[in-house]
UniProtKB/TrEMBL annotation:
Biased composition (Basic and acidic residues): 33-42
InterPro entries: Bact_solute-bd_prot1 (IPR050490), SBP (IPR006059)
SUPFAM superfamilies, sorted: Periplasmic binding protein-like II
Keywords: Signal, Transport
Tagged with keyword Nucleotide-binding: no
Leader peptide range in chain numbering: 1-28
Entry protein name: Carbohydrate ABC transporter substrate-binding protein
Superkingdom, natural source: Bacteria
Region Disordered: start-end pairs: 33-52
PROSITE patterns for the chain: PROKAR_LIPOPROTEIN
UniProt similarity note: Belongs to the bacterial solute-binding protein 1 family.
Entry keyword Signal: yes
Species this protein is from: Streptomyces aquilus
Gene3D superfamilies, per the entry: Periplasmic binding protein-like II
Length: 456
């Protein structure tokens, strides 16, 4: 887990937000500019910036949380790895409880060779239990060449490098249905939280469900909270809460939850109301914003939304589906990042070879060409991204360097920040169900946080 000193100031976060806002202004005016060829989209790249060993006859297992379009896009990377090494690779979905799934596999003596961990807190816990294998020399060489210090630090524990952040996310984005905005007579996207709520009300009054919320997946609700909290309370408080150096009963948390209740407490602004939101999983939250007779007008989540738009709707990113930065609640717009870190759970040449490939520009460019992904790989060819919208969001992430805040719940112990049906996920679902009980939500969050951090 990153220390507080690794993070930057409010001014740096504001700079990154400005970069992102500028990039999205450019893309909002244009259509989908697909510069990736059909061959690239299928993962048949010919550049070889990395040398891999022959692994004929070996079978590797790779575990990750992804399903559907996200899994299929990653499969193209694995196909190229197989083509170059001869190894067969089996993908194993972990489900939302990644740490529980992998923990059972490891303790049962049957871990996958490589796993993607969606939480920094899980990386730290696994390292402390000696479940992880350090990066080999070849993988570390690729990592050092292609990734900034901030992303390398996130994959290290106590000075030892374990992971490769091959997949990142910008989690400070609102995607919107352009037809719904036009029908409501909205010509400008909101820049502040006050304007965002006003825009949602205008859309609702015009007959569109204003905001689609994937509340059945508790992690989406943690992202809502983090964006509001970072913008409103500031980066220093964010870092303190992320490490549980201040309690969830702190007045800054009360203020953020009260702000969220301005949206979550109004059924008419949510697609299906609060009950509908709690019954909606993340993929459906995206599709219901871009399909059907009365689609929702807006949906919040990261750049990976494009994977669902491309796979599950007929909407065209950059034309039918556009995006704007998460509105500023306080002085600055937030910049919250997330990511999945690839780690080896088994010794052997195969696991290290796959990590080496994942740290290379080759793998990054093949994966980026599929859509629905950002790569922190600063040396990759940015033209490989599937569309201009993603390309500009990715550029903003790279240009920001180490000036970002990592997803708060992903820094927490898994029992609090990364487990379905418990901890922060469940507590925020309960708050979505009853947004009038701010004090009760704070008490639950603090009790669960204290228990998880105390045992980590």
């Amino acid at each position: 887990m990153r220390s507080t000193s690794t993070y930057r100031t409010r001014r740096a976060a504001a700079t990154a937000a400005a970069l992102l806002a500028g990039a999205l202004v450019l893309t909002a005016c244009g259509g989908d500019d697909d510069k990736a060829s059909d061959d690239e989209s299928k993962g048949t790249g010919t550049d070889t910036s990395v040398t891999l060993p022959k692994l004929d006859g070996q079978t590797l297992e790779v575990a990750a949380v992804w399903t559907g379009a996200e899994q299929e896009n990653f499969t193209q990377v694995l196909k190229e790895f197989t083509k170059r090494t001869g190894a067969k690779v089996k993908f194993v979905p972990t489900g939302n409880n990644t740490s529980t799934f992998l923990g059972a596999k490891i303790e049962g003596g049957q871990p996958p060779d490589v796993a993607f961990l969606p939480q920094v807190g899980v990386l730290k816990q696994f390292a402390q239990k000696n479940w992880l294998k350090p990066l080999g020399a070849e993988a570390k060489a690729q990592l050092d060449k292609n990734f900034s210090q901030g992303w390398r630090d996130l994959g290290a524990v106590d000075g030892r490098q374990y992971g490769v952040y091959a997949k990142a996310a910008n989690k400070s984005l609102i995607w919107y249905n352009t037809a719904a905005f036009e029908a409501a007579g909205i010509t400008e996207t909101p820049k502040t939280w006050k304007e965002f709520i006003s825009t949602a009300q205008t859309l609702s009054d015009a007959g569109s469900p204003a905001v689609s919320v994937g509340g059945a997946d508790g992690w989406t609700l943690t992202d809502w909270f983090e964006n509001v909290y970072l913008s409103q309370a500031g980066p220093e408080k964010y870092d303190q809460l992320a490490q549980h150096k201040i309690k969830w009963t702190d007045p800054s948390v009360k203020q953020a939850l009260t702000t969220l209740a301005e949206l979550w407490g109004k059924d008419e602004l949510l697609a299906g109301g609060r009950k509908g939101a709690l019954d909606t999983e993340f993929p459906k939250s995206v599709t219901q914003a871009f399909t059907g007779d009365t689609p929702a007008a807006m949906v919040f989540e990261g750049d990976f939304v494009t994977a669902n738009i491309n796979a599950d709707t007929k909407a065209k990113v950059g034309t039918d589906a556009k995006v704007f930065p998460f509105p500023a609640v306080g002085a600055d717009s937030p910049v919250v990042s997330g990511g999945d870190v690839a780690v080896a759970l088994k010794d052997g040449k195969g696991a290290q070879a796959l990590l080496t490939f994942l740290a290379s520009t080759d793998a990054a460019e093949i994966w980026a060409a599929q859509g629905g992904i950002l790569s922190p790989n600063k040396e990759m060819d940015q033209s490989k991204y599937k569309d201009d919208v993603t390309r500009q969001i990715a550029k903003a992430l790279i240009d920001a360097g180490d000036d970002f805040r990592f997803d708060m719940s992903d820094q927490a112990p898994a029992a609090f920040g990364g487990t379905q049906g418990t901890g922060e996920w469940k507590d925020l679902q309960d708050f979505l169900s009853n947004p009038g009980d701010v004090a009760g939500a704070q008490q639950k969050l603090e009790a669960d946080a204290a228990k998880a951090y105390g045992s980590s």
